[in-house]
Design brief:
heterotrimer, A mainly alpha (161), B alpha/beta (328), C mainly alpha (498), B: 328 residues, alpha/beta, D-Maltodextrin-Binding Protein, domain 2, 2 domains, globular, C: 498 residues, mainly alpha
Chain lengths: 161, 328, 498
C-alpha cells in the first residue's frame, strides 16, 4: 500500500463526507437490488446476483475508506480552498442549460451556458462571449439540421429557420 | 453503377404509370397535407426512424405533403417518447408517431401509465415475421423434431434471441404454450443486438435461435443455418418461400414485428380519417413500393378500424404471454 | 496470388477520382463526428443511409468506411486535447494523452496517435485481406463461457489503472459496475436500478458517463481552483513532431496494439474498448518507465490507439465474410448493403468481388488519407489549446451538451452527465482515479451477461468455464497475470538469497 493512514491525525471532514457518500450509494444500491422483481423465468443465475456482489463490494470498500478518513485521511495533499464564485457561475450555466434546452431550445441554452461558464472562468467581455456562443450554437445547429437532418433540440428560434 | 441506374429507371417508369392513372392522382390530391409532424420515439438510425423517413421520402416525392418536421426522442423501447407525444401534441391534426409491436411489449413490461392505447391507430405499414433456425449440423431436421424436444424438456434446449421479454422471447412463449408447456420453463438466452445472436447459433453455442427473418436470411441461403418455421400468417414471398409457417406445422401461432403510425389523442374521427387517407395514398405511390422492395420490408398495409382491432388483439396476446413470463 | 490480383483490381476501383473524393468526404465527416462525444460513426452512417438511393454501392461503401475509420482518429484528438473522449474506444487514450497535452506535449501525443492508427489500420487491413475467413471461423468457436473468461483477463488488467490507492480505485470500479447494471436485464427482462424511471430502461450511455467524469468534472474542478491561478495548461513545448526517443518508445506499442486489436474486432462480444484496456495494461507492464504512466507516458497513447483502429478493421471481417455484424456501425452498414439488394454473407466475395475488393482497397487509401489529413492538422489542432481558458472550457461544455442531448433529445441524459460531473469533481478533489469507473461500466455488463448466458447454455453446470478448453486457457492466462509476477519476484528473491 503506497499510503499509510497517519494514526493520530484528526479526521478529515471532506474525506469523511466523500466516504460517507459512498456508503450511502452502496446502501441505495442494496435497496434497489432488493426491489428487482423476482422473475419466474427459468434462469440459472438470477438478475440480482451481480448487483448484490457490486453493492456489497462497494459497501465494504466504502466502510474501509470511512475508517481511513476518520484515522487521518487518505493521505491526499491538502486541498486548496474552493473558489465558490467561479463554481457558482459554472453551476448557474449548467442549470440554465438544462432549464432552457427544453423550452427555448438548444441555441439559447447553449448561449447561456457559454456566457456563464466564460464568466466563471474570469472572462469580462459579456457581449463578446455572447457573440462567440451564438456563432458556435448556430453553427452546430445548422450543421446538424442541414447536413445530417437531425434536430438537436428545437425551440423558438429553431422553429423560425 | 448499373444497379442504381436500373433502380432509377424503374422509378421513372413507375412514376409515369401513376400519372397515367387518373383515379389515383385524384386520391392523392384529396390527401394532400401542407405539413406533417412526425414523431419518432427512437434515436435516428433504427427501424422506426427509417420507417418515418421513408414515409417522408415517398410522400414528398409524390407531392402528398409539403414539408415534414421530425422529432426523435429515444429510450425505453419507445416508452420515453410516447408520453411526450401524448402530452405535447394533443389535438394536433397533422401529428403522427411511429410505433409498432415492440411498443406494446415495453408498455406492458415497463408498467407505463401512457401506452399505445393513448394514441389513435392510423395505419400499419410493414411487418416482419420471425423465423426459428438451427445450425446446419443440428439433429433437428424439421420443426417437429424441435417441438418434440421442447415438449419433452424445454429447459434442455437453450434457445437464443434478443432481450428477454422482447418479441423473440414472446414468440417462443407462444410456441411453448401451444405445445402445452409453460413459457417460463424455456432456457432462453438473451443476446445484445449486433450479431451476437447469429454468432451464437452459427457457432452451435445455442441449439436454436429466433429472430426476424432478415437477420438470418443470408445464413439460411448459404446453408449454414436451417430454417424450421416462420411465424407469419402466410409463407414469405420470394426468398424463403420454402419455409413452412408454424400453422402449417400444427402450431397455431402467428406473430410479426409490425411497424405503423398513430395519430395524436384528442383528434376528431375526421382528422384521423384524413391521416389514414394520406397513408393510403403514400402506400399507393410507386416510391413507397420501391422502398419496400429495396429495404426488404414486407407490405402489411392495414388502416383505420381494422388496424385498431388488430392492435387490441395484439395487446391481449402479448399481455398473456408476458404474464406467463412474470413480466406483466 | 488470386488475392493480390483481386486487390490490384480493387485499387483500380478505389483510385478513380470519384471514389477518392468519396473517401475524402468520408474521412472528413468521420473525423468531425468522432470529435463529438456521443455522436459516433454508427449514427453518422445511419444518417447518411439515404445516400444509397443516389450513388452506386461502391461509392457509398467507400464513404461509410471513411466515416468509420475517420471517427477513430477524431475521437482520439478530443481525448488528448480536451480530455473529452469522443468515442468509448478512445477513453483510455485520454488517460495518458491528456496528461501529455497538459505537459505541453500535445503535438507528439497527437502524432503518435495518428501514426499508430495508420500503422495498425494498415496491418489490420492487410490481415483482413489475407486471413479473414480463418480468423472468423476461429472467432465463432468462442461462446459466452469464453467471453466470460476473457472478461476475467480484462478485470485483472484493470489493476493497471487503479491508480495510487487500490482502495479508492476499487471503490470507483464498483461504482462503475453499479452504473453498468442500470437498465433492463437481458436474461430476465426485469428493470434494474431504474428508480422507476422509463428513461433508464435502456441503461446509461458509457460516453455520457465518460464525458461527465472527464470533461464536466475537470471544468468544475478547475473552476473551484480558479482563484489560485493554477492549472493553466502548460504552453506547448518543443517540437510538434515525434522526437527520436518518441519514435523508439512508440513503434513497439503500435505493433502490439495492432495484433491485440484486430482479433477482438472479429469477436461478436469483443468491442473496440476491450483491446484498448488490454493494450494499456500490456504497455504499462512492459514499459521501462512504468512510473511515467499516469503522468503522460507516450506508450499509453500509442498502444491503445493502435488497438482501437485495428479492431475497427477487424469488425469488417465477420461482416464481409459472414454478414455478421459485431458492432453497431457494422450492423448499419449491413442494412446499407441490403438497400442495394446485396446480401453480405458467405457468398459476397464471389458474387460482389468488385465491390468487396474496391472497399478493401479503399480502406488502405482511407488510412493514407487520414494520415495525410491528420498529421498537418496536428499543428492546427494544438492551437485549440491557445484559446483563452474561459472560452475553451465554455466551448467544451457546449460540445458535451450537444453530444449528450443532441441526438436523444433527453434532458435526463443531460442531467446524468452533469450529476456524474459533480461526482467526478469530488473524485478529483480526493484523488479517486476515474478510469476504473468507466472500465467497470463497460466490462461489468459484458461479464455478467456472458456468465449467465454460459450457465443457461450449460444448464447450470458451473464447470463449463473450465471444461471448455479455450475458456480454461483464458482463465490460466488470467491466473498467470494475477499471481505470476509475484511468484517470479519470490523466486528471484529466493535465488538471490541462495
Amino acid at each position: 500500500m503506497p499510503e499509510q493512514p497517519k494514526v493520530g491525525r484528526r479526521p478529515v471532514t471532506g474525506e469523511v463526507a466523500a466516504a460517507g457518500a459512498l456508503v450511502v450509494i452502496a446502501l441505495a444500491s442494496l435497496w434497489q437490488t432488493a426491489v428487482i422483481p423476482v422473475s419466474p423465468i427459468y434462469a440459472r443465475v438470477g438478475p440480482t446476483l451481480f448487483p448484490q456482489i457490486a453493492s456489497w463490494g462497494l459497501l465494504v470498500i466504502a466502510v474501509l475508506l470511512l475508517i481511513q478518513a476518520f484515522r487521518g485521511g487518505f493521505g491526499v495533499e491538502e486541498s486548496l480552498s474552493i473558489d465558490w464564485r467561479a463554481l457558482a457561475w459554472v453551476a448557474a450555466g449548467l442549470t440554465a442549460n438544462v432549464v432552457l434546452i427544453g423550452t427555448l431550445g438548444f441555441v439559447f441554452a447553449a448561449i447561456a451556458l457559454f456566457v456563464c461558464v466564460s464568466r466563471g472562468f474570469g472572462s469580462t467581455g459579456l457581449v463578446r462571449d455572447a457573440v462567440i456562443g451564438t456563432i458556435i450554437a448556430f453553427g452546430a445547429y445548422l450543421g446538424f439540421e442541414k447536413l445530417l437532418g437531425v434536430n438537436i433540440g428545437a425551440g423558438i428560434l429553431e422553429g423560425l429557420i | 453503377m448499373s444497379g442504381s441506374i436500373t433502380r432509377r429507371g424503374a422509378l421513372a417508369a413507375a412514376g409515369a404509370l401513376a400519372l397515367a392513372h387518373p383515379a389515383r392522382a385524384q386520391a392523392q390530391a384529396q390527401a394532400r397535407f401542407e405539413s406533417v409532424f412526425m414523431f419518432v420515439p427512437a434515436a435516428p438510425g433504427g427501424g422506426w426512424d427509417s420507417t418515418g423517413r421513408a414515409i417522408e421520402q415517398a410522400a414528398r416525392a409524390a407531392g402528398l405533403v409539403g414539408s415534414f418536421q421530425f422529432e426523435n426522442v429515444g429510450g425505453g423501447g419507445g416508452m420515453v417518447g410516447l408520453p411526450r407525444f401524448v402530452n405535447q401534441r394533443r389535438g394536433q391534426a397533422n401529428a403522427m408517431i411511429v410505433g409498432g409491436s415492440i411498443m406494446l411489449g415495453t408498455g406492458i413490461t415497463g408498467k407505463s401509465s401512457v401506452t399505445v392505447r393513448d394514441v389513435q391507430p392510423i395505419a400499419r405499414l410493414t411487418s416482419e415475421a420471425g423465423v426459428i433456425v438451427v445450425p446446419a449440423a443440428s439433429p433437428f431436421r424439421d420443426f417437429a423434431g424441435l417441438a418434440a424436444a421442447l415438449r419433452a424438456n424445454p429447459g434442455a434446449v437453450p434457445i437464443g434471441g434478443s432481450v428477454a421479454g422482447g418479441i423473440d422471447h414472446i414468440l417462443l412463449g407462444l410456441i411453448l404454450r401451444a405445445l402445452g408447456q409453460a413459457p417460463r420453463s424455456a432456457s432462453y438466452v438473451g443476446f445484445q443486438a449486433g450479431g451476437q445472436n447469429i454468432a451464437a447459433v452459427l457457432g452451435g453455442q445455442v441449439q436454436a435461435s429466433i429472430s426476424g427473418y432478415s437477420e438470418f436470411a443470408e445464413q439460411i441461403k448459404a446453408g449454414r443455418l436451417r430454417a424450421l418455421a416462420i411465424s407469419g400468417e402466410a409463407r414469405l414471398a420470394g426468398d424463403g418461400a420454402d419455409i413452412p409457417t408454424l400453422r402449417e406445422q400444427g402450431v397455431d401461432v402467428t406473430l410479426a414485428n409490425w411497424r405503423g403510425v398513430f395519430g395524436a389523442p384528442g383528434t376528431t374521427a375526421a382528422q384521423q380519417a384524413a391521416l389514414a387517407a394520406l397513408m393510403g395514398a403514400v402506400h399507393a405511390t410507386p416510391q413507397w413500393q420501391e422502398i419496400l422492395r429495396t429495404r426488404g420490408w414486407a407490405d402489411a398495409f392495414l388502416a383505420g378500424e381494422a388496424f385498431g382491432r388488430f392492435v387490441e388483439r395484439d395487446i391481449a396476446d402479448t399481455e398473456a404471454v408476458l404474464k406467463d413470463l412474470g413480466l406483466a | 496470388m488470386d488475392t493480390l490480383a483481386a486487390l490490384a483490381g480493387g485499387f483500380a476501383t478505389a483510385l478513380t477520382p470519384t471514389h477518392l473524393m468519396f473517401a475524402f468526404i468520408g474521412c472528413f465527416l468521420g473525423t468531425a463526428v468522432g470529435v463529438l462525444p456521443g455522436i459516433g460513426p454508427a449514427l453518422t452512417v445511419a444518417l447518411l443511409l439515404p445516400i444509397t438511393f443516389q450513388v452506386p454501392a461502391t461509392s457509398a461503401f467507400i464513404l461509410f468506411a471513411g466515416v468509420y475509420y475517420g471517427a477513430m482518429y477524431g475521437g482520439s484528438t478530443t481525448s488528448i486535447l480536451l480530455n473529452t473522449p469522443g468515442e468509448s474506444a478512445t477513453i483510455i487514450t485520454a488517460l495518458e494523452g491528456h496528461k501529455m497535452a497538459r505537459a505541453g506535449r500535445a503535438g507528439p501525443a497527437l502524432a503518435t496517435a495518428a501514426i499508430g492508427s495508420f500503422v495498425a489500420g494498415t496491418i489490420a487491413t492487410g490481415a483482413l485481406t489475407f486471413a479473414a475467413p480463418v480468423v472468423v471461423e476461429l472467432a465463432l468457436k468462442l461462446g459466452p463461457a469464453e467471453y466470460f473468461s476473457l472478461m476475467v483477463v480484462a478485470f485483472v488488467a484493470v489493476s493497471a489503472v487503479l491508480g495510487a490507492s487500490a482502495l479508492r480505485g476499487l471503490a470507483c470500479l464498483f461504482l462503475g459496475l453499479l452504473l453498468g447494471i442500470v437498465g433492463v436485464d437481458l436474461q430476465t427482462g426485469q428493470p434494474r436500478f431504474t428508480f422507476g424511471m422509463i428513461e433508464f430502461l435502456d441503461g446509461i450511455e458509457v460516453t455520457i458517463v465518460a464525458v461527465g467524469l472527464f470533461a464536466v468534472a475537470e471544468t468544475l474542478h478547475l473552476a473551484t481552483r480558479r482563484k489560485h491561478g493554477e492549472d493553466e495548461i502548460i504552453p506547448l513545448q518543443g517540437s510538434l513532431w515525434l522526437s527520436r526517443e518518441d519514435w523508439a518508445r512508440s513503434w513497439k506499442p503500435w505493433l502490439r496494439g495492432a495484433f491485440l486489436g484486430f482479433p477482438f474486432g472479429a469477436i461478436p462480444a469483443g468491442g473496440s474498448e476491450l483491446p484498448t484496456f488490454l493494450s494499456y495494461y500490456m504497455e504499462k507492464k512492459l514499459s521501462k518507465n512504468p512510473a511515467e504512466f499516469g503522468h503522460g507516458a507516450i506508450e499509453g497513447v500509442a498502444g491503445p490507439e493502435a488497438a482501437n483502429n485495428a479492431s475497427a478493421a477487424g469488425v469488417l471481417m465477420p461482416m464481409l465474410t459472414l454478414g455478421l455484424p459485431t458492432s453497431v456501425t457494422a450492423a448499419i452498414m449491413l442494412s446499407a448493403f441490403q438497400s442495394y439488394g446485396i446480401q453480405p454473407g458467405p457468398m459476397l466475395f464471389v458474387t460482389q468481388g468488385d465491390l468487396v475488393w474496391g472497399l478493401i482497397a479503399s480502406l488502405y487509401v482511407g488510412n493514407v488519407m487520414l494520415l495525410v489529413l491528420n498529421l498537418p492538422l496536428v499543428g492546427l489542432w494544438v492551437k485549440i489549446l491557445k484559446i483563452p481558458t474561459p472560452q475553451l472550457y465554455a466551448g467544451i461544455l457546449v460540445f458535451a451538451t450537444i453530444g449528450a442531448y443532441g441526438v436523444s433529445n433527453s434532458v435526463v441524459d443531460l442531467l446524468v452527465m452533469y450529476a456524474v460531473g459533480i461526482v467526478g469533481l469530488f473524485m478529483k478533489r480526493y484523488d479517486f482515479p476515474v478510469a476504473p469507473a468507466v472500465i467497470g461500466m463497460i466490462l461489468g455488463p459484458l461479464a455478467e451477461q456472458a456468465f449467465r448466458q454460459a450457465l443457461t447454455i450449460s444448464q447450470g453446470d458451473p464447470f463449463t468455464f473450465i471444461t471448455r478448453p479455450i475458456s480454461a486457457s483464458f482463465l490460466v492466462v488470467a491466473l498467470l497475470l494475477a499471481v505470476g509476477p509475484k511468484l517470479w519476484n519470490a523466486y528471484a528473491a529466493s535465488r538471490a538469497r541462495a
